[in-house]
Write a structure and sequence with these properties.
Blueprint lengths: L1 E4 L2 E3 L13 E9 L2 H7 L2 H5 L12 E8 L1 H7 L6 E4 L9 H4 L33 E4 L5 E4 L5 H4 L2 H13 L8 E5 L3 H12 L4 E6 L4 H10 L3 E4 L5 H8 L5 E6 L6 H9 E9 L12 H6 L3 E4 L5 H13 L8 E6 L3 H9 L9 E5 L6
Parallel strand pairs: 8-9, 8-11, 9-10, 11-12, 12-13, 14-15
Antiparallel strand pairs: 1-2, 3-4, 3-6, 3-15, 4-5, 5-7
Helix pairs in contact: 1-13, 6-7, 6-12, 7-8, 9-10
């Protein structure tokens, strides 16, 4: 499925590339749809310079190694028939960030070099997960996963890894800390799972009234309180729930909306940390920088997920002791990719989706 322009998808057939000693071909089982896929579909990524030209979307690929070169098999430790979760970013391995191990800050390509964001004219052309097969670049970072997990659970590796990094690793969430998660989508709920596993003392989640089912699910996953952001005063409610102390960590995973970032600065405690993870797509946030200075707030932007967080997410999923199956809402056949995007974006009738995926060759379920 090729995106040829804003809100324009077309089915294309591309030639299967030859596999060299350092390459591989992935047969897609599922490709998770991220909230940022919605922004990409709407054309915001072109405006931001992240994409240009015809692109195969999909940066959360889960699949089976279909064919692999000899050196690639040794390097990755996998063989044909193994299930793998693929990290979206393809590091250049040459820039200063990559050499220091900070692959999420890679700038050696001169652009965001990621599966799902690359023009079909780059490399093999099979550069995204909305497809039957995907070519794996030699610099790909991937993680072997158990074939015993249902694909609908295994595909959660990406959002759960985001929860691990954004709610725990980056803010250095400590035992007993108070965490506020702004947004109860798949990554917001993953923040709840990760924070509870890490020993957070109090977890508060916000979202809109239309997402009340997600807020209820957040409570089942271990959140201590849920706030309906369009019916309650978020700042006042957090102040009440924390007895005036505020949150140690606030994670904003909301897309486009800027008010949550203003709320985050207001509700974080003096010396606390605010994590900005939601793609805003261009609108500016009118910060009062004096408040950030006076409260000694650490404000951190996080882009995608690092490898250690993927490793921990895979371990959580393979442990199998969470209600992960309930996070997956639906899978859609490749030809119904636009319908899948609208479902995740809340543009379709029915209950809001948590996790939606593309299942090549499959009927919707």
């Amino acid at each position: 499925m090729v995106q040829t322009g804003p809100r324009s998808f077309e089915v294309h057939e591309l030639e299967r590339p030859q596999v060299g000693p350092d390459d591989a071909i992935l047969r897609l089982e599922l490709c998770g749809i991220c909230g940022s896929d919605v922004e990409q579909y709407d054309g915001r990524f072109d405006a931001m310079g992240w994409t240009s030209g015809p692109t195969i979307p999909g940066h959360e690929p889960l699949g089976i190694i279909d064919e692999i070169g000899e050196r690639a098999a040794r390097r990755w430790g996998v063989t044909a028939g193994d299930r793998v979760a693929v990290e979206p970013l393809i590091p250049c391995e040459q820039c200063e960030a990559c050499r220091s191990g900070a692959r999420t800050r890679c700038d050696g390509w001169g652009r965001v070099f990621s599966y799902g964001l690359l023009d079909t004219g780059i490399a093999s052309g099979l550069n995204g997960g909305y497809a039957d097969y995907m070519a794996l670049h030699p610099n790909t970072v991937l993680h072997k996963m158990s074939n015993k997990l249902p694909a609908s659970v295994a595909v959660l590796f990406n959002p759960l890894a985001a929860g691990v990094r954004w709610a725990v690793a980056e803010p250095a969430l400590g035992l007993g800390d108070t965490l506020v998660v702004l947004g109860a989508g798949q990554r917001g709920l993953s923040c709840v799972i990760a924070a509870r596993a890490a020993g957070a003392g109090q977890i508060i989640v916000t979202d809109l009234a239309r997402s009340s089912d997600k807020l209820d699910f957040a409570l089942e996953l271990g959140a201590d309180a849920a706030i309906v952001a369009d019916e309650e005063d978020v700042v006042a409610r957090v102040d009440e729930l924390t007895a005036g102390r505020g949150a140690d960590v606030v994670v904003d995973v909301t897309p486009v909306a800027t008010q949550p970032m203003l709320d985050a600065v207001a509700i974080v405690r003096n010396g606390g940390t605010v994590i900005c993870a939601g793609v805003k797509g261009g609108p500016t946030t009118p910060f009062d920088t004096d408040v950030i200075m006076r409260k000694s707030i650490t404000l951190k932007g996080v882009f995608t997920v690092d490898s250690p967080s993927y490793v921990q997410a895979v371990r959580l999923l393979e442990r199998g002791d969470g209600p992960y199956a309930r996070m997956h809402t639906a899978s859609y056949a490749l030809q119904d990719a636009e319908q899948a995007i609208h479902h995740l974006a809340g543009r379709a009738e029915g209950r809001p989706a948590i996790n939606v995926a593309i299942a090549p060759g499959a009927a919707p379920r």
